[in-house]
Amino acid sequence: MTSADPAAIGREDGAGRDEVERFGARELYGALALALVGAGVVVGSPTLVVAALVPLAFVAAGGSDVTPDRSVRFTRRVGGENDDVSADGSTVSGDPGDAVTVRTTVHNVGDGPLVDLRVADGVPADLPVVAGTPRTATRLDPGESATVEYELELRRGTHGFADPVLRVRSLDGSARRTWTPAVDDDVTIRCAPAVDDVPLGDGTNDRAGDVPADEDGSGVEFHSVREYESGDPVRSIDWRRYARTRELSTVEYRAERSTTVVCVVDVRESERRTPAGSSLPAAALSVDAAERTALTLMDAGHPSGVVCLYERGALSVDPGTDATTRERTRTLLSAAGEGDRPEGSIARSRHGSPAEVLAAALPGEAHVYLFSSFVDDGLDTLPERLRAGNHAVRVVSPDVLSGGTDDAARIGSIARDNRLARARESGARVVDWDPDRSLELVVREAVGEGRTR
Q1: What is the fold of 72-191?
Q2: CATH code at 261-446
Q3: Over the stretch 96-119, which tens digit does the pLDDT of each residue have?
Q4: Nearest to 117 by CA among 109, 125, 106, 127
């Protein structure tokens, strides 16, 4: 039977939890010693009296080690030399499906031995352990250390480690202490790599931005010189020409316009299945790429929106750059990756086939980024129809079939290649995305400087 130390349970000390349990072993050993002494006196056996010294030794040891020591330093390191992740301060970033190595070390900084130390690291709830173990049991003498190493598979989102738990028993086993230590150099794992410097083609709207337009206006690139008109800014006057001819003229610069972009994400049932040989479903990869692309374009001043294509109909967030549009984009994509629909009215519900939905949802000048694995013919003709509507089209297609080795996977891969070839023939820019490639490189290729309109 165990008993708890009321003064210790629930005490916030250092990192938090600190509990001590006592098992009444000293009383048991004491009773055993008395019984042996009594039996020895009754039967006149010196051997029994001497044997009583053994349980008495445990009683004495327990008296000097009532509460187990917790002088342990806990350190966690995330990311190994061969891991495809990047670190920025206390944040480690990687792509979905990547494996990251975690090493946790416990060091006995006390003066006595830890004869029975149990360690359980606080693995992030949504990240599975794919190699090694986050637990161990060991003995540590003063100054000794023990290291636990395991690998986590990255999944979309931001993940923090839970509190680790340490447990140590006293020398005689009469008490057990459980606590959560402070963690040296703790980190957060972020699985949503940034995509920087997204260049765009020539489809523009009337908002100011960084894509040169074929008209004059405010900008930095020379466009033309015209006759001075009353009210023209003084800084626009061509003073060199005035010095030569004494005639006033005004310099016009090429106007810069922003580009409206709509990220179309295929989250139908066929995209949410994980094919043999793939670690993630296509929908998870597409949602990741779409979110990073849309948010980066918003940061650059390009109004961007999202359309998620479900089995029946779609949900959309209209293009914009404001904080509300950003939050709605994140919320919609987070739910869509799991095949769900977000609660509330953050997205507009649309009904019809993909072509009908996009005809109603797309602004006339919008660029379309289509994220789909094309593992079936559900969107087979969509790039062609979008091009016919005079939209610049970029197709980003995660190849989730390449890891399959059976006949069905090979046949499916050939059919997918044919669908992508048809999209290229329509004039769309197509990126066949090997999931082993980093997301940043894939999106850079998809939105390169080439112009396909």
Answers
A1: Immunoglobulin-like (2.60.40)
A2: 3.40.50
A3: 778 889 999 999 988 888 888 899
A4: 106
